[in-house]
Amino acid sequence: MTGFLLSSGAGSMLGMLIPIGLIVVFIFFSSRSRKKQERQDAEMRDALAVGDEVTTIGGIIGMVVSVKGETFVLETTKDKTKIRFLKGAIRSVDVKAADRAAAILETKEASDEAPVEAAPAEIDAPKAEKKGKKSKKKADAPAEAAPVETAPAEEAASEEK
């Protein structure tokens, strides 16, 4: 009879330890993920730079025009409306200033490369002047639009649509 009581007491103790152990494991993993998210948010706020496009926790979207200590000034509209916020009010950095500068450089490089290639009408123009008026009218006529080569990023964006 005493053996039965001991075995049932150990079973109830084990039955109570399992849920408690699961709760402890759950709390441990949830606190780790929360700390990781807080660390990422702090890094994002510390890396805030002039020219970044951000969204605040209130839903205001704009471009950072100055950063001082724990505050920053956000320019929100074409009218140059400026609002000062705490860095803690940032929900996300949508476009980094460095990414924007890289995109501008890529665009500029692409536009610099485009004029280097001569259009067929420009190549044939000197020949047309030698042949006479009939050929000259052809050369002066608007050239058909040549297919424009798109950048790989634009092709990827158009393929996603």
Main pleated-sheet profile? 5 strands, antiparallel
Q: What is the element string, with H for helices and E for strands?
A: HEEEEEHHHH
CATH C-level class of the domain at 47-95: Mainly Beta
Mean pLDDT: 74
Structural class: alpha+beta
Low-pLDDT stretches are: 1-6, 135-141, 153-161
Helix content: 55-70%
Short recap of the structure:
It is built from five helices and five strands; from the N terminus they run αβββββαααα.
Word description of this protein:
The protein is of the alpha+beta class and 161 residues long. Among the domains are: 1-46; 47-95, SH3 type barrels (Roll), CATH 2.30.30. The protein is built from 5 helices and 5 strands. The chain has helices at 2-46, 97-113, 120-131, 133-140, 152-160; strands at residues 53-56, 61-68, 71-75, 82-86, 90-95. The chain has a 5-stranded antiparallel beta sheet, covered by helices on one side. A hairpin with a 6-residue loop joins strand 3 and strand 4. It is elongated. It starts with a helix and ends with a helix. Residues 1-6, 135-141 and 153-161 have low confidence and may be disordered.
Question: What topology does this entry show?
Answer:
Blueprint: H1 2-46, E1 53-56, E2 61-68, E3 71-75, E4 82-86, E5 90-95, H2 97-113, H3 120-131, H4 133-140, H5 152-160
Antiparallel strand pairs: 1-2, 1-5, 2-3, 3-4
List keywords for this structure.
5 helices; 161 residues; elongated; 5-stranded antiparallel β-sheet; 57% helix; alpha+beta; disordered N terminus; 5 strands; disordered C terminus; SH3 type barrels
